[in-house]
Amino acid sequence: MKRRTLFLIILVTVLSTGILTLAGVKIYGQVSGRQVDSQTAKAVLGTGDSTGKNADLKKVMEAYLMIQSTALEKVDKKKLIDGAVEGMVSKLNDPFSNYMNQQQTSEFNSSIQSTFQGIGAEVTLKNGKVTIVSPFKGSPAEKAGLKPDDQIVKVNGSSTEGLNLNETVTKIRGPKGTKVVLQIMRTGLSSPMSVSVTRDDIPIETVYADTVTKDGKTFGKIEITQFSENTAKHFHTELQKLESKHIAGLIVDVRDDPGGLLNAVSAIGNELIPNKGIILQVQYGDGQKQIFHSQLQKAPFPVVALINKGSASASEILGGALQDNGYKLVGTQSFGKGTVQSTIPLQDDSQLKLTVAKWLTPKGRWIHKKGLTPDVKVDQPEYFSAAPLPAGKELKLDMNGADVRNLQVILKGLDLAPGRSDGYFDNGTMQAVKTFQNQHSLPGTGVVDAKTAQSLQAEIVKRIKDPKNDLQLQAAIDVLAQSAK
């Protein structure tokens, strides 16, 4: 297997061509094996040959020359070539394969830093729609209320219909301090909602550690938001700190973690997977496999992992490794990305990203388009998925629609019981709003104006961030407490 030296961009990550960050892709992986580049392509095609592989390209050249010489509408030569390559890649019918021109490649490469600018969210093409995989923790996207599975249907009033992923991402990117308005379609809404996001610097802080207690025992909790360059090192440091506190078990939280580096997830697996067990397998098109083993001898304590639909790729590798080695997963079904991408630089500094392999769990499961099924399924309260209240729009008596329904979900989450949740602003909803306004020293008008909306949003976010209300976390603590007995 050592001959497989292939640089895989986003091998295990949602940050592949099919899943891009709205502020830049940051993930590189390396799998020992094959080297693929433009020189390899030359060797395959040959030069000065009118037969074999080059003969297959004769038709392409004829079409190119004919368009250049006779077409009424003149198109830049570079655009024609880019279009030809894009066309070939599109025929793969693979959302994770893509072509990036020189500008897109430059933006891609410059974004592989410890900090970048944007809104801080991962996107993919899902059923032909540009869909959010997960916002980054603490990012403008998260603060604006964007959620996994949100579909981006418009960017600054311009439809995303017919655009590829790179084109959509380019529209959303922009300098710090500027705003982008997204039209979002979310499950449960009858029409798109408008979300304004202010772009900012997105620092890559990926590991957050804490302790929780249950039945007199102390357990560690480590949240991994991405698997980036320094994640494994930070994980090791935080794990050592927790072990010094003599924890009786560990919760690994990869909810809303869109993936990352193969070497990061492999290194973390080394610290969690006991008995030198398998972390993952990579299977190539010719059937050959590369197997990654843990170096850990004995498990120091039980482990439970938290997953949800925003857990993708590298997160699923870690989750699958834990599950196949006897540990429990708690939460909801994960995203389901089980393919491997390679970046191939071209002569003009553009590049291809192609799916070249798939990864399997230790027991050989391929979770692509299916995801991991948790051992303990737990849904969060409905208000965890509440959309931000609309800016610049008052909600009041006798109004009807998705915004009012969302308001009712928030009021219910704040224990204010509007009495209905069908999107009609009746007297019960108005009384619930008045109660909230009185509790927070706001004018008791029963109308959701800008100040009331802002206060409602702040209170529901505070409730979401309270660990007591995190039903999945509480279930994981219970499972861990049972395992530690």
What do you see in this structure?
- By secondary structure, this protein is an alpha+beta fold.
- Among the domains are: 115-203, Pdz3 Domain (Roll); 207-341 and 357-377, 2-enoyl-CoA Hydratase, Chain A, domain 1, CATH 3.90.226.10; 387-467, PGBD-like superfamily/PGBD (Muramoyl-pentapeptide Carboxypeptidase, domain 1, Orthogonal Bundle).
- The protein is 31% helix and 23% strand.
- It has 14 helices and 22 strands.
- It has helices at 38-45, 52-56, 58-70, 77-90, 102-110, 140-143, 165-172, 231-244, 262-272, 314-324, 402-413, 427-439, 450-465, 471-483; strands at 6-8, 19-21, 29-31, 98-100, 115-118, 121-126, 129-135, 151-155, 158-159, 179-185, 193-198, 200-203, 207-214, 217-224, 250-253, 278-284, 289-293, 303-307, 328-331, 339-345, 351-360, 376-377.
- Strand 8 (151-155) and strand 9 form a beta hairpin.
- It is flat, with a radius of gyration of 25 Å.
- The relative contact order is 0.12.
- Residues 1-50 have low confidence and may be disordered.
